Amino acid sequence: MKVDVLLGLQWGDEGKGKIVDVLTPKYDVIARFQGGPNAGHSLEFNQIKHILHSIPSGIFHQKQINLVGNGVVIDPVIFREEVDSIRKLGVSLEGKLMISRKAHLILPSHRVLDAASEASKGITKIGSTLKGIGPTYMDKTGRNGLRVGDIQEPDFQEKYRALKRKHGDLIKLYDYEYNPEEIEELWFEGIEEIRKYQIVDSEYEINGFLKQGKSILAEGAQGTMLDIDFGSYPYVTSSNTVSAAACTGLGIAPNKIGEVYGVFKAYCTRVGSGPFPSELKDDTGIYLREKGSEYGATTGRPRRCGWLDLVALKYAIMLNGVTCLFMTKADVLSGFETLKICTAYKKNKGISDQVPYDFKEINEPVYTEMKGWNQDLMRIREVSEMPAELNEYIRMIEKETGVPVTVVSTGPNREQILFTDRT
Ligand code: IMP
Q: What's the CA-to-centroid distance between 420 and ligand 1, angstroms?
């Protein structure tokens, strides 16, 4: 058996949560491999809208194991809130949730450090979700971090206090006011909640599952253009978001990767600061935001909107080895007479179809125009009902990328999905 990987090809918020939820019945195990509660994976079913942050999107199904891998960072406070809200929906987590012993913990002081660092940057701030992600990964690579496995050790409290002291010294450098004790009680309650689940050596678990012939879906968070190495640095998140991170974030070898499902929106959005070549700063951008409910699932911030960027999409496909494309939010594009797709960037020295080292080199996007469609896609249930112009839009993407669009999502609900059977 192999591990299939599903990830975002743009700047996050591609609608991965819904797709994982729909695909879950085909898999025995759903595993998160990077990121943390900066993610907000939205799912809608039975008139319920639910947002997951750290727990894999397979949790609403009965039989599947949901694994939080070693590459993930966990905030116990948010974890507990998440668990409580899942339970309130009558969903049981018992026997379904495993957490890697090697996943790192986000401390309350990591969140303060995140806020202090952003505040010190002024207009150059990253636009972080302020969940403490950057400082936690810094402590991981700096070899200072606290891991889930540490909560099982007798000196856990001591280790916690030592790291908190270290953070206190750093925060003083920022001259930032805070009360570290404010959420400490909640944090330790969250630790107690984590103890209730199976804390495992997830690399052995996952390889054991493979040996037993179990099917596994690795669920990515954020998107390729936010990758710490390949995104628009420094306006990125602090983890690798590309498919290779499924190997390091779960402990699986590269030759164990099977399909790579790349999820992208039919247009583009970005939340937070940083370059976005096809951004629409006009009424069309506002229209897309309102029609697509483009507000951050984690922070509620309005998302910046723009036309589909094929240069960025092809780059993401190359980095991830995408085998199938899943297009989401096609319904939001209904009603446009003309649609634009960015196919290249105009630079000072000519035109380029590559993502540059520095986005400042880009003067403006080069667009191809396509005929739009008017049909309400949210109601259609068969591929044969798709308007001809939507088919053309998809064919253009397939021709440019060389990868088939096998799934088209036409609304937030589980039922609003079309499988095209294209190969
Ligand atoms: P951080 O990961 O919270 O530090 O945020 C760094 C950048 O990534 C900011 O621009 C965030 O808005 C963005 N970001 C982080 N997580 C997500 C996500 O799940 N979806 C979309 N953008 C995200």
A: 31
Tell me the pLDDT tens digit for each residue of 277-320.
999 999 999 999 999 999 988 888 999 999 999 999 999 999 99
Q: What is the share, in percent, of the chain residues with pLDDT greater than 70?
A: 100
CA of 131 to the centre of ligand 1 (A): 9
pLDDT for residue 180 is more than 80: no
CA dist 48 and 60 (Å) reads 12
pTM, to two decimals: 0.96
pLDDT tens, residue by residue, 118-161: 999 999 999 999 999 999 999 999 999 999 999 999 999 999 99
Residues with a known catalytic role: 13, 41
DSSP 187: H
Angle between helix axes 76-88 and 184-195 (nearest 10 degrees) is: 60
Distance CA 102, CA 250 (A): 10
The amino acid sitting at 376 is D
pLDDT at 396 over 90: yes
DSSP string, 161-180: HHHHHHHHHHHHHHT----T
Q: CB of 222 closer than 6 A to ligand 1?
A: yes
> How far is Cα 171 from Cα 321, in angstroms, rounded to an integer?
41
In this structure, the strands spanning 350-352 and 338-347 are antiparallel
Q: Using the mean position of ligand 1's atoms as its centre, give its distance from the Cα of residue 266 in Å.
A: 20
Q: Are 327 and 317 in contact (CB under 8 A)?
A: no
Non-local CB neighbours of 334 within 8 Å, separated by 6+ positions: 372, 373, 374, 375, 376, 377
CA-only gyration radius of the chain, Å? 21
The type of residue at 29 is V
pLDDT at 423 over 80: no
Residue 239 CA: nearest ligand 1 atom is 2
DSSP reduced 3-state for 315: helix
Residue 297 Cβ inside 6 Å of ligand 1? The answer reads: no
Residue 43's pLDDT is: 85
